Amino acid sequence: MNEERVPQLLRKLGMPREMLPLLQEALTHRTYAVERGLKYDNQRLEFLGDAVLEIIHTEYLYHRYPDLAEGDMTKIRAALSCEKTLAAAARKLDLGRYLLIGNGEKECSGNERESTLCDLFEAVLGAVYLASGLEGARRFVHGTMAADYPDPRRLLCSLNPKGQLQELVQGRWKRVPEYRLFRRGGPPHQPFFEVEVRVGPFVAPGRGSSRKLAETAAAVKMEAFLHRRWENELS
Q1: Is position 50 annotated as part of the catalytic site?
Q2: End-to-end Cα spacing for the chain
């Protein structure tokens, strides 16, 4: 059972044993809490972790790039904090393996969903912050992400997937991608948006905490699909 694995993660993160209940809260998905009648889930810690992550990234970029403009630092911070990036960090730590999740979500592999993993990473960060303070939270974030982003400024070259897709489509078909919002939901503090982008007969979905992020995710998927299709045509 996942409950039995929680102490393993506690040791892996270097958190003191008395923080076990806090880590267990960070690993408790709301569906699990509902099924078990628990009075807590990881949404409050996720809220805290999101704020801590913003401080850590802001401080890091401020000192790392003293000549970088505010707008560029904001773009890099957004890329380092986006759903895809944090889900990848969660996978690197194998956090989905420890997630306490409801049976319905488990059956549809909810612990592998990018939005769930992103939220999980932030919740665990919130727990690390409460257990070890800002310095411990810094070690956790940098230790997890530094190897993958040794020079975050390079992210500026890939921060406009929608623009790249539009340029690609206009160059080949003389048209522009069409975006459509088809679903939105979630509580006010944790909304989600689902969109699709259409290029001729091809459609790609995207999901994010804002419409802009959802459209960006859809653009990334569509561009990857089109490149694979063209490569197959040439092979």
Answers
A1: yes
A2: 46
Q: What are phi and psi of 37, to 5 degrees?
A: 70, 30
Question: How is residue 3 written in tokens?
Answer: 């409950």
Nearest to 194 by CA among 204, 184, 202, 186: 184
Per-residue tokens: 115: 């939005």
Q: CA 157, CA 123: separation in Å to the nearest integer?
A: 29
In the residue annotation, 122 being an active-site residue is answered as: yes
Low-confidence ranges of the chain (pLDDT < 50): 1
Question: pTM of the entire structure?
Answer: 0.69
Residue in 25, 50, 114, 194 annotated catalytic:
50
Q: Around 26, how many Cα atoms within 13 Å sit in the side-chain half-sphere? A: 35
Q: Are 134 and 192 in contact (CB under 8 A)?
A: no
Q: What confidence tens digit (pLDDT) does each residue in 125-144 have? A: 999 999 999 999 999 999 99
**pLDDT digits over 91-124, tens only?**
999 999 999 998 888 787 777 888 899 999 999 9
> What are the φ/ψ torsions at residue 160 (nearest 5 degrees)?
-130, 65
Distance CA 218, CA 179 (A): 9
Q: Which one of the listed residues 46, 122, 194, 223 is annotated catalytic?
A: 122
